[in-house]
Structure formats: structure tokens, C-alpha cells
Amino acid sequence: MSSHQHHKLRHRALEVLVRLKRLYPDAACTLNYETPLQLLVATILSAQCTDERVNQVTPALFKRFPDAFSLATADLQELETLVRSTGFYRNKARHIKESSRMIAEKFGGEVPKRMEQLLELPGVARKTANVVMANAYGINMGVTVDTHVRRLSQRLGLTQHKDPVRIERDLMQVLPQPDWENWSIRLIYHGRGICTARNPACYNCKLSDLCPSAQIG
């Protein structure tokens, strides 16, 4: 990509960002949590599941297992039962238990603040690590790429890739670092309400004039 093309892309990304901030001024992480560990667990549960459903499950889970030490020694079947309604519950329960054990044994019960340490945890990829780093610790290490962020970033012409890691890299090059996480949260709001997967409401979209994929007419 030439420097001129990159400049145009960055300009469009910044304009999208400005409008998203205007459209969703109070956008925040929609998972309920009180500690970094609770956010980590909730984010693991949110894979292929709505945040609303996760928020229905976590109060009982966190009351029964309030910290990494209790989760690390939890009975796996009991854990599976508590998270069953979030889907893929066997994998999720195993990842939560194994991650908690590593946090308890290797990190003194505290969720680490470094990306490379977070990525050591079972079941934790960059998406989950970015959510925890940004929302629990206020550290923007990357752009969280979920299905909404991937779809909208592609439609807006900000990436041509399908792989989340490459999409993240493209977005990091055109967005200011302090806005990396709120970009994702606002794009998720927009993806849920306007730019849906099957029937995007381009006629009602405040980004349509910036979007190469907009179907207006």
C-alpha cells in the first residue's frame, strides 16, 4: 500500500471513529464484573454467546467461586453445570479451571497485566487478552476483533483480511492507540443495531457515505 493510500484509509478510519463516538457516547463493556478475574472468566464465556446470557450466568458462578484459588480447585462437573447455558460449556469450564490454576500457582492469584503472560493462559487468545487489558487495567495493547468488528471493518474497507490477527494489525495502523478498545465496543454496538450480518440497514446508517459496501438506493 502506498503512503497516499494509507493516508486516505487512516483519514476514513478517523472519520468513522468520530461518528461512532457521536452515535454511542456512553458505550462501555457490556459484561458485568468486579475484578480482573471475573472479567477474564466472563470474556471466556462470551465466545459464541451473548453478553446478556453471560451476565445471567456469572452472578451464581462468582458467588460460588469468588477467586482464582476457588476456581482452580472447583469440581469440573459443577463448573460445567453452572456455565452450561453459554454453550460449548465443557471447553469453557475446562479453560476457566486451568487458567485459574495457572493464575493461582504462577501469578499469585492475580490476573497478569502483560499480554504475553495472558496469552499463556489456557483458552485465552488475543481477543480475550485485549478485553481484559483494556477494561480491567486501562492498557490498550491491541484492537479486540470479534465477529462484529471483523464484519464491519471489512465492509468499511479498512481491511481485506479474514484472519482476526491480521485484521487487528490493519486496524492498529489506522487508529490512535487510546481509541483501540472503544473502537471495538462502539463497532459492536453498531453491528448489533444497524450493520447486522444478514440485513444491514444501510438506509439508516450514519456511516454509509464512508462505506464502500453500503447498499443505498
Give an overview in words.
The chain is mostly helical. It folds into two domains: 1-26 and 141-208, Endonuclease Iii, domain 2 (Orthogonal Bundle); 34-135, Hypothetical protein, domain 2 (Endonuclease III, domain 1, Orthogonal Bundle). Helix content is 58%, strand content 0%. The protein contains eleven helices and no strands. It has helices at 3-23, 36-45, 51-64, 68-72, 76-83, 89-106, 115-118, 126-137, 147-155, 164-174, 180-193. The longest helix has 21 residues, at 3-23. It is elongated and about 55 Å long. The two termini are 31 Å apart. 36% of the residues are buried.
Topology:
Elements: H1 3-23, H2 36-45, H3 51-64, H4 68-72, H5 76-83, H6 89-106, H7 115-118, H8 126-137, H9 147-155, H10 164-174, H11 180-193
Helix pairs in contact: 1-11, 2-6, 2-8, 5-6, 9-11
